[in-house]
Amino acid sequence: MNHVEPEGEATTVQPPVDPMQDLSEQAAETADNSLNELEEQLARALVQSAEYRESWLRAVADLSNARKRMVREQAEFNSNATARVLEKVLPIIDDVDRAFGNVPPDQVESEWMTGFRLIQRKLQAFLESEGVTTIPTAGRKFDPALDHAVSHEEAEDFSEGQIIAEVAHGYRLGDRVLRPAMVRVAKGN
After folding, report:
1. What pTM value is reported for the model?
2. How far is CA 171 from its chain centroid?
3. Is 98 exposed, middle or buried (0-12, 13-18, 19+ CB in 10 A)?
């Protein structure tokens, strides 16, 4: 049997609606929304992570600089404290040197003088162990960074500005002048 449709009316046949397809479209849309939201959260987390990393790197650099500064300041403090103590010892050494310059001839070989020479050597050894050196003056020109002129004198055998004689030793601690050498300086004719 042939089935004939009435003329004039065209009917379209709709495929049956599948409820599962409708749910899967909703699920895909929800998944897309969730994925977009997760991507946004990830982007925010990455930005925040970069900010935290920069802050951390700055803090590490600040800590390193603070440690270096503290070590440098501690070394400077120790150096200044050492210098202050040594500066107080220098006049004692000067007095001992002056005393040896005025020893009566009959006492030069006495046991008493031998004991004082031992004290003088120990003081010198102490200065050397701390890195103190004397400032040499013999035969050189006056240097205001190393010397203190106690007098300017005319001297035939010396050129202008040359050190004639040392009145008191000058001392250095490394590159630092603890006390300038007290000197007499030749002046121009």
Report:
1. 0.63
2. 26
3. exposed
